[in-house]
Amino acid sequence: KGRELLAAGKIALLVVAGGQGTRLGFDGPKGTYPICPVTGKTLFQYFAEEIGRFAEKYGHVLHWYIMTSELNDRATRAFFKSHDYFSLPADSVHFFTQGTMPAIGYDGQLLLGAEDSLALSPNGHGGTLLALKKSGALDEMKRLGVEYISYFQVDNPLVPMADVLFLGLHCLEGARMSARMLPKTNAFEKLGNFCMSEGRLHIIEYSDMPDELAQKKNADGELAFLAGSPAMHVISRDFIEELTADGKLNLPWHRADKKVPFLNAAGEIVKPEEPNAVKLESFIFDALPLASKTMILEGCRAEHFAPTKNKTGVDSAESCRELMCARDARRLELAGIKVPRKADGSPDCIVEISPALVCDDADAVRLTRKPYPAPKAGEKVYYA
Are 271 and 119 in contact (CB under 8 A)? Predict the structure, then answer.
């Protein structure tokens, strides 16, 4: 069923890309960060090449919606234009901007960002749904025949953006909003927590989860709240239309304490070293309990999840590249190409397969069509 939907143009892809690469030590939109382990391709280029291959594979253009923020919208559009949209049809790449909310000082007053404006910040990924409506993107999707939206975040290059199983099950189950799930590695992993309340599916953000509940265990010793959300969803277009019909969307606000630069009474910009204000954000998963039918599909962490949040350490550019290399090494082996491995089983080489050549495991057979060389120990090899 998922293949049918892709071949019929019923699927659009939506990436949330409003963030900057600040935590990566990078000046620019996070999507323009160079992530690939051999070529150094950016996140945006990697996704674009993968989308191009999916379009080729299923014989239909895949429309790609990119949600930017006021902070990086201009730079993101310019990046795509300067790279000729990475060979995608320009009219298949759509940009829209998320909304903003004013920052509130600890004295309860709104902060100024300049003499003539408030200190504003993006309103969270929950703002995606209303931004789709207000920008006209939702109406455009309807005109294009799009019925389902595959939603993901820009910092995870392993995301299975056009997974035929996930898409097909969402449709066949009659779900309005679906979510992928990964078992958490520990009680405090920074993933949302799936739970049921009054017969409805909810996700509790890790920062809102009481420690006692996060650590709670079942009789078998397993975490009671084991199911984590990696922020991958399939959403029916008409469900978003219903939620935003009157031009409003009543999702709850979540508090985040942040360091917010502001204009003081002397007219000087102050850059605080400690949190000084509250930012209010909405989360897209708070739409789940509003859906009459939901579906959860468990994913494979090694295949699907390589978040790029920090420069080094956990969920870093470093760990992401290792996971990308490991996934591509497995795909080489699926095609019968021998990969040298270390004693711990990890690849003893750095390999990268172009997503324009192989966009999923089933595509690995394409590596058998010409005599690609096996990588040698310690080598860096790019397959395209």
Answer: no
Neighbours of 203 (CB within 10 A): 23
Looking at residue 53, its amino acid is R
- Asked whether residue 250 carries a pLDDT value surpassing 90, the answer given is no
- Are 17 and 30 contacting, i.e. CB atoms less than 8 angstroms apart? yes
Contacts of residue 357, Cβ cutoff 8 Å, sequence gap at least 6:
53, 363, 366, 367, 383, 384
Q: What is the pLDDT of residue 298?
A: 98
The H helix count followed by the E strand count for the chain is: 10, 21
Distance CA 36, CA 25 (A): 17
Tell me how far apart the alpha carbons of residues 26 and 28 are, in angstroms, rounded to a whole number. 6
All structural domains of the chain, each given as residue ranges with its CATH number in brackets, are 2-309 (3.90.550.10), 310-384 (no CATH)
Structure tokens at 107: 């004295």
Tens of pLDDT, residues 55-110: 999 999 999 999 999 999 999 999 999 999 999 999 999 999 999 999 999 999 99
Backbone angles phi, psi at 202, to 5 degrees: -130, 160
| Helices 137-144 and 127-135, packing angle to 10 deg | 70
- Nearest CA to 195 among 289, 129, 283? 289
- Three-state SS at 125: coil
Sign, CA dihedral 304-308-309-312, equals positive
Write the DSSP symbol of residue 271.
Answer: -
- Strands 177-183 vs 233-236: parallel, antiparallel or unpaired: antiparallel
Read off the amino acid at residue 308.
Answer: T
The amino acid present at 222, given as its one-letter code, is E
Apex 133 CA angle, 233 and 157, nearest 5: 35
